[in-house]
Design brief:
Layout lengths: L1 H21 L11 E4 L6 E5 L5 E5 L9 E6 L2 E6 L4
Antiparallel strand pairs: 1-2, 2-3, 4-5
GO biological process, one term: proteolysis
Protein name: Putative tick metalloprotease
GO molecular function: metallopeptidase activity
Length: about 80
Amino acid sequence: MEYLGLASVAYFSCLLLASLGAGLPTYQSIVYPELFDERKDEGVRVLKINEDLTLNLEQSSVLHEDFFIRTYRQGVPQHTYYDVE
């Protein structure tokens, strides 16, 4: 049991040293992001952060398609369903 505790401490110490050694980028810059609509009508937008970084954004729902709220009225469950699309 004592060996397991010592091994865990050694393992997490190695993880900590590895994460500190990885480092972060040393440069800083100010960016002015630009948002573009794609020419195709697929609902995709392009977010250009800088010359090296561009993100393609697609609209999505954060809710499940069968989303409902359950409330209780006098101990009886009431379900209210919502159309998320």
